[in-house]
Design goal:
- The structure holds two protein chains of two kinds.
- By secondary structure, chain A is α+β, with helices and mostly antiparallel strands.
- Chain A has two helices and seven strands; from the N terminus they run E-H-E-E-H-E-E-E-E.
- Chain A is 18% helix and 43% strand.
- The longest helix of chain A has 20 residues.
- Chain B is 18% helix and 36% strand.
- Classes of the chains: A alpha+beta, B alpha+beta.
């Protein structure tokens, strides 16, 4: 297991095990907030996540929010799988090297095979990205 | 240990795209063909880009979109400094390892401060992912 990057909360649990999430991660899950209504994830910005201008690459932020929203759709429903149908991202502010980036994901509505989610990505009190998305879920009870 | 990318162009006539952002270099290579402002970009999908179900991760789709539409914006603005303000995506069909993902970014409208772009991302001749994004030219109002 890789060394934990500095700045992560004590309770962070690594969640990125395979594939692209492993390649661009590591990602961590944080304890839920708002009585379980908000699911939280984190990563720490490393050199590989940057663009040439010295801020986090937009593709990396979208990769992180896609992971966080996809995992939240499964955690919320017990689905065994799922896929992104649409995702809308507003890039509100820049992230920097070493930032501890947190995603806070909420479910807007769950239908039988579809789920609507929203997410906010921040570094401390700086908001970086807001997203809304629609996922198809598979194998939900 | 991550699999190594294949450095060979995926299609005849394509040459490597010059990437400067560390995140893009990390997930690349990307290749291109055609004249500035009307280029087609292509990427061979490998094991690094897949999710746990063996299909292309949504984050990699969006990273390729941000990279290619950004390259096109650079060509159209004579390499002005730009940032992504917003990206909207629709995931129509999965892609798998070995597929060659291609896009010819399209300019929708350019104003003094904004560039509106779109792209239909294809495997062979089938569109599997569509994107619209809005870019801001820094320092312009």
């Amino acid at each position: 297991m890789a060394d934990r990057p500095p700045g992560l909360p004590e309770e962070a649990q690594e969640v990125s095990s395979v594939g692209f999430n492993h390649y661009v991660g590591p990602y961590y899950r944080l304890p839920d907030a708002d009585g379980g209504e908000t699911r939280r994830f984190a990563f720490v910005v490393a050199d590989k996540h940057m663009n040439a201008g010295g801020t986090i690459h937009g593709g990396m932020l979208m990769s992180f929010v896609d992971m966080a929203m996809g995992q939240s759709s499964r955690l919320a429903t017990g689905a065994t799988g799922g896929s992104t149908v649409s995702l809308n991202c507003d890039f509100v502010g820049p992230g920097r090297l070493g930032d501890v980036i947190e995603a806070r994901v909420k479910i807007s509505r769950r239908a039988r095979t579809m789920i609507f989610l929203s997410a906010e990505i921040s570094a401390g009190d700086r908001l970086l990205l807001v997203a809304t998305g629609l996922w198809k879920i598979i194998g939900a009870p | 240990m991550s699999p190594q990318p294949n450095p060979a162009p995926p299609l005849p006539g394509f040459v490597p795209t010059h990437l400067v952002d560390p995140f893009e270099i990390y997930v690349g290579p990307v290749f291109e063909h055609g004249a500035p402002g009307a280029k087609t970009y292509a990427m061979r999908l490998d094991a690094r880009h897949m999710n746990r179900r063996g299909i292309l991760h949504g984050g990699m789709f969006m990273t390729f979109a941000d990279l290619t539409l950004g390259q096109a914006v650079w060509d159209l603005t004579n390499k002005a400094p730009v940032v992504t303000l917003n990206m909207q995506t629709h995931f129509l069909k999965p892609a798998v390892e070995g597929n060659i993902l291609q896009v010819t970014p399209e300019l929708v409208r350019r104003t003094r401060a904004l560039v509106f772009m779109r792209g239909d991302f294809k495997v062979e001749d089938e569109t599997i992912f569509t994107v619209q994004s809005v870019w801001k030219l820094l320092g312009q109002s």
